[in-house]
Amino acid sequence: MMSKLNITELTELDTELLGYLSIDKPESFFLFAGAGSGKTRSLVSVLNALKHRYKKKLVLKGQRIGVITYTNGARDEILSRLEYDNLFSVSTIHSFAWSLIQSYQNDIREWLRIDTELRIEELEELISKGREGTKTHADRIKKIESKRVRLENLNSIKKFSYNPNGDNFSRDSVNHTEVIKMCSDFLSDNEMMKEILTQKFPILLIDESQDTNKDLIEALFKVQSEKSKKFSLGLFGDMMQRIYMDGKKDLGKQLPQDWKRPSKKINYRSPKRVIELINKIRSYDDDHIQEAIEEANDGIVRLFVVSGDVDKQEIEKKVMEDMASITEDVLWSGNDAKVKALILEHHMAASRMGFSDFFDPLYASDRLKTGILDGTLPELRFFSDIILPIVKGHRSDDAFKISRVVTRNSPLFKPEIIREKENQTDILEEADLKTKSLISLWEEGNDPTLKSIINKILDSGLFNVPELLKQAFEWSESSEEIEAEAVDFKNVFAFVSAIESPFSQFENYHIYINDDAIFGTHQGVKGLEFPRVMVIMDDEESRGFLFSYEKLFGAKEPTRTDIRNESEGKETSIERTRRLFYVTCSRAKESLAVVAYTNAPEALKEHILNEEWFSEEEIIELSADN
Ligand SMILES: Nc1ncnc2c1ncn2[C@@H]1O[C@H](COP(=O)(O)OP(=O)(O)OP(=O)(O)O)[C@@H](O)[C@H]1O
What we know:
binds adenosine-5'-triphosphate
């Protein structure tokens, strides 16, 4: 992503940006430039320079410099580069929005009242136009009922809550969409809010602003135009890397006259051949052409066209071996391979890494989704923070590690239990016996199911088992029919299925979500960079409908909707996919393999050659027969 900088390393462009961010004569700017051009690096170096220039002045006035990032990961990275200096408030858009509005509880209540009434009216209108007796009709009635309950409850809520990283399902919580909309409305319509924002943050910089929610961006534009004498807004981004539907489509098109538009032409990240490819991909959208740095390598790219009923894991292994010999870079294959393989959806990693039985049922539940992707679900923490370290301790014969996990987590070591026992060695012996019995599940290379682990622990009482797991275990053992109306029915059921899988599946899932795996998603690698990148494109395996590589690569005709959207000037799935393809290819620092699974290899190849994305020598065909 970024390299550590000190302020003496300011580039000409950084100095230009610094000039705009003067607190005496503020100006706003829009720095939009291609992948790898050093936008994030400029952001950090400019912030460091601002610290030296203005820290004393701003601290005296109780002011800070605001920075909005797209992900928590990017926030952490920038914060660490700024050495956690308190002058900066670095946060994701959701945390930022909530921190601005959370003290205005009455305004939140009123906003929710009006918004909920409006949503009810909209639903009533839809109901009056739609057909009765359909599922949609029944769903709408249900939605109205739940919104009415929310309206009735509004007055009794003492304090609204919000967790930017959570699901916000509780009665007093507001959801992600509401927080952004509320903040945008408050900023657009409320003079006091504009004053609060600009007083607090005379300088506000937004990274990846092409994907920042459009309502909020528009509200911030409004604040900037009204408070231009004391507020600088700096946008960093790249419209070609807009990959979420939330962003402002025409961002930057009608900027006010007084906004500055600095530019960057150099790509510092990628070798020449990769830059040539991404310039080509980009040429359909705009005429921004990048150049490589003088000392850049030539770099190698290959397109693997794969057809037929193939074993995908075998194919991808072969691609990596081929790349190792083509590039003469051993890190492309073997046990020590250092490759980033980009898949479109998480379940594609699950099937390749062998954790689908565990992952798929949980990921299908809306309420569990977030927690399973970031590993914060308490039911998963039970396995990751207690069972996994014990298993690892067992494998490495580390009795000390095991006993530390047990003493920290077992209710046997609670002070009140210890006090009750006359002889404390009894507790140690009891814990030891129960731990050994748990570990015996892995004896002789066994791979126990999660269910058998839960069973063992429920029997021994060595640890407390989280409620959902306990319930899932009981349901899976019960011969009675469970009522669909039961509390948390769907979630418990998801676990009933997931706990049938072996522990090794949990372990693989754990490796995946902790970024230790070679797999990452196309969307998730935004802002990152890797020496060797393998982009996997597989429409058949992906479940969404937003992207289609087969269409982008000419292997499938555009649908009537695509043609209609195009003629109406609306975005098509081809355009969206092209931007995602630009993001993935531009992560490569040394070499790039693109793997296209297709039903029409000939058409695909012809299209690619016509469009001159890859040359004949760069295309390798693989099928079930070779
Ligand atoms: N002026 C520079 N001199 C040397 N290296 C640079 C310079 N600017 C950026 N780099 C390096 O180039 C790479 C890309 O930089 P950075 O991540 O800041 O680009 P970006 O424009 O934010 O990229 P993207 O839009 O693709 O996320 C990093 O490795 C960074 O250290």
